[in-house]
């Protein structure tokens, strides 16, 4: 009798271990990137729809405007989730590792896509530099940024400095002759 009990207990223990060992079956290396994107879309769409519905309810949008907001948020969050899941899976396949470093790459990619959607990255990194460095001539830059120290109107050495400049100018004119 104890033999039967020990065998039954051993079999249930093995079944429990197999049931708890989900990492081998849900590893990113065993899933295809297309499945990951589909899972991201399937999870992101309802989450986005809930977010859009709660936003429409919280800010008391008119009834018909709430549907448009719900659809827009559902599509946006589903797209971001799909990019995140797909990039996470692609990075895992490319590196042939399923570790914590896949998530930052996926987060960067989904943030990049979201930033490009609203042109935040373009405005931040390119527009300011273009305006400052490429669109102005050196003379416009000089006029836009005057020197830091122009002079104190009550400068006690101003008269001396003018005399020194005048002497140097006359000395330069005499040396040229």
UniProtKB/TrEMBL annotation:
Keywords from the UniProt entry: Membrane, Mitochondrion, Mitochondrion inner membrane, Transmembrane, Transmembrane helix
Please report the record's description of how this protein sits within the membrane.
Multi-pass membrane protein
The UniProt entry, under InterPro entries, shows: NDUFA11
Q: Does the keyword rRNA-binding apply?
A: no
Regions crossing the membrane: none
Which GO cellular component terms, listed alphabetically, does the Swiss-Prot or TrEMBL entry include? mitochondrial inner membrane; respiratory chain complex I
Q: Which GO terms describe its biological process?
A: mitochondrial electron transport, NADH to ubiquinone
Instruction: List the protein's name.
Output: Uncharacterized protein
């Amino acid at each position: 009798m104890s033999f039967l009990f020990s065998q039954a207990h051993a079999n249930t223990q093995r079944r429990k271990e197999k049931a708890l060992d989900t990492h081998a079956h849900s590893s990113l290396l065993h899933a295809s990137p297309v499945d990951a994107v589909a899972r991201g879309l399937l999870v992101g769409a309802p989450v986005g729809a809930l977010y859009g519905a709660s936003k429409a309810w919280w800010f008391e949008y008119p009834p018909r405007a709430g549907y448009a907001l719900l659809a827009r948020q559902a599509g946006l969050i589903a797209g971001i989730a799909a990019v995140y899941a797909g990039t996470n899976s692609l990075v895992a396949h490319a590196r042939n590792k399923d570790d914590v470093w896949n998530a930052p790459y996926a987060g960067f990619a989904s943030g990049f896509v979201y930033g490009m959607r609203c042109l935040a990255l373009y405005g931040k990194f390119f527009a300011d530099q273009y305006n400052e460095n490429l669109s102005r001539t050196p003379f416009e830059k000089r006029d836009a940024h005057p020197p830091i120290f122009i002079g104190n109107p009550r400068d006690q050495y101003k008269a001396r400095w003018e005399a020194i400049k005048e002497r140097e100018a006359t000395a330069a004119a005499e040396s040229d002759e």
